[in-house]
Amino acid sequence: MPFSTPQIWPNPLGDGYRPEAHPVSGGAPCSDYDLLREQLLEPNSISRVVLAFESGGYLSTLPNPYLATEVARAANDWSIDTWLSRDDDRLHGALVVATQQPLEAAKEIRRVGGHPKICEVILVGTGLGKPFGHPVYEPIHEAAAEMGLPIAIHAFGEVSPGANVAPQAGGMPSYYFEIQSQSHQTLASHLVSLIAHGVFERYPSLKLLLVEAGVSWVPGLLWKMDDQYKSVRVEVPWMKRWPSEVFLEHVRLTTQPLETSAGSEKLVAVLDAYGAADVLCFSSDYPHWDTDERDHVARTLPRSWHERVFHDNAAKLYGWA
Questions:
Q1: All structural domains of the chain
Q2: pTM for this predicted structure
Q3: 211 in the Ramachandran plot: left (φ > 0), alpha (ψ -120 to 50) or beta?
Q4: Are strands 151-154 and 208-211 parallel, antiparallel or unpaired?
Q5: Which are the contacts of 207, defined by CB distance < 8 A and separation ≥ 6?
Q6: d(CA 220, CA 211)
Q7: Residue pLDDT, tens place only, 225-242
C-alpha cells in the first residue's frame, strides 16, 4: 500500500483493485500469501514472481527526505521478513529507495541488494525534480551496477500530493483518464535522459526495466532519438551508439498494460517495429483492476514470442538460470 497520501486523481471505478484480491479476514489487497498463490501464482503457472511495492509507495512525494529514507529502509526490511523469507522459491522482490537522497539510496542498495531474493531497484517518481539520467542520481546508477541489479522505473510516481513535477509534460491534468492515457510520458522522459547522459556508456552492465506504461509508444520515440542523434550528437559526445541500439541492449518493458483497442495484428506490427519479442517481459499488475492474465497476453502476442516474453527475457534481465 502507499506510504504517502493517495494520488490526486482517484480511479472512478473504485479503489483500483480487484474485489476478490481483498482478504476475507481483512487487510490490503495482495497482503495474504495464500490468496496470492491461489489467484496469481497457480493459475498463471508462475515459476518466479517479482513483488514490487504499490507504485513504490509514492515514496518520492514525501517532502521530508530523512523520513523517506527511513521509510524505504523499513519497507525493504519488512518485505524481506514478511515475503522473501517464506519457503517459496517463486517469491522475489524489488528494493525501494528514496530518490530525495541519492547517496543514502546508494547505501540502501548496497545494504540489501545482495539478498538472494532481491532482484531489482525500483524508482518511482523523481524526488529531486530531475529525470533519472541526471548526474545527481549517479550514486544510484553506480550502486545498482555494482550490485548487479537492474533499475526499474514505475509509472505514476508523480500523481500524489507532494510530487516535484507534473505527471504530464503540459502541466497538471484534470482527469484519471488523462493520467492513464499519458502514463508513458514520464517514463519516456527518464529513458531519454538516461541515454542522453550516457549512463549506459559508463555502466555497460546496467539494465533498465520500464514498468506499467504500455508498450506501443516506443518505436516513435526511438526513431525520433535516432533522427536527433544524426543531427546534434555533437552536444552529447559520450554517446557512441544509436539510441535505438542502446535501448535494445539495455532496456526492457513490462507487458502490462497491452494496448489492444486497435486489434492484436496492428499492435504486433507496432511492437515488431522495435524488436519487442526480445524486449517485453510478462507482467500481470496483480492485484489491480486492470490485471492482464497470462492467457490474455498469450492470445494477443504471436506464439513464436511466448518463450521469450513469458520466460527468457526476464530470466536474462535478472540473471536467473
A1: 19-315 (3.20.20.140)
A2: 0.96
A3: beta
A4: parallel
A5: 150, 151, 250, 251, 252, 317
A6: 18
A7: 999 999 999 999 999 999
